[in-house]
Design goal:
Elements lengths: L11 E2 L26 E4 L6 H10 L9 E4 L3 H5 L3 E3 L5 E2 L4 E2 L9 E3 L2 E4 L2 H18 L6 H22 L19 H6 L12 H42 L1 H4 L5 E3 L7 H10 L8 E5 L6 E5 L22 H8 L4 E4 L5 E4 L2 H13 L1
Parallel strand pairs: 2-3, 2-4, 4-6, 9-10
Antiparallel strand pairs: 1-3, 5-6, 7-8, 10-11, 11-13, 12-13
Family: Belongs to the MYG1 family.
Pfam families: MYG1_exonuc (PF03690)
InterPro entries: MYG1_exonuclease
Amino acid sequence: MLSGARGFTEKLFFFPRYLTLPLMAHSRVSAFSTAPGLKRVGTHNGSFHCDEALGCFMIRLTDKFRDAQIVRTRDQQVLDGLDAVLDVGGVYDPSRDRYDHHQKGFGEVFGHGFSTKLSSAGLVYKHFGMEIIAKVLQLDQGHPDVHRLFLAVYKSFMEAVDAVDNGINQYDTDQPPRYVNNTHLSSRVGKLNLDWMDPDQSAEKENEAFERAMNLSGSEFLDNVRFHAKSWLPARSIVMECLAARMDIDPSGEIMVLNRFCPWKLHLFELEEEMKIDPPIKYVLYQDDRSKHWRVQAVAISPDKFESRKPLPSQWRGLRENELSREAGIPGCVFVHMSGFIGGNQSYEGALAMAKDALKL
């Protein structure tokens, strides 16, 4: 039992060992167990936020701090004796495993083109994320897929945790959003804090709530990593391959055909920039799995805009089937949306003809 700020008692608690890394263990454990030989990771007591809950979860997935005990206190003497400290203590020093971000002058960012100031979770991810992702993928840390997911998971998941904790607005007038927030995880973690009307405000009850916050944020982190490994990365490979073959489809290089449907939009924008594609893709063709018809989709001007780079011709919009085929002079037409962002044809040859003619009109 340790002395501390909350009722003058702060207690150690730890969470169950994962039988395999990708699986969450949901069984309840004693909040006061202190297994000998385990390292101890400290964070502050009192109201908690997503960043320290997620940071504590992630750091316990590493070899160095696997299954470490979590100590929640603001007692500096106690913190000084711990193996790692997150979100408290006023020190950022990875050589001593100190990961606070509240001190004056702190401005650490993830790098790799990201400029959002890091929270304690972001600091843990920056220093240990490659190791964690390599374990999930069961690959060596030097594998290129590990690095790709390291960046993608930060962009799609971690950056929002950092930004929300540091009070950074997502939007600024008419500019693109500063970061992606798909989960609103920080808000949901915040709701797990003890309600002010709860008659039991004990450290024990607070630690139980923090354990739930760790499990919630940690399970969503692992789900995000798994998604990127099982879905995002294969889709990226498909889009890259199809983008490289664009000149075989049409000499303009502005039409891409997906040889297998997958989520392609964000990959296309990122890969166009990485591969320095010029001119950019105007239309993407793919087969509808249900109808087996082919779609012609106009590429948007940016991922967050509805406006297309080159909408399908205005004279085609809103027409269907025979009327559309007569107007376009292309057999097998199915439809063109009123906005011109998408159309369809019964065959691949017909869809390709629509895209080629649309480039000229």
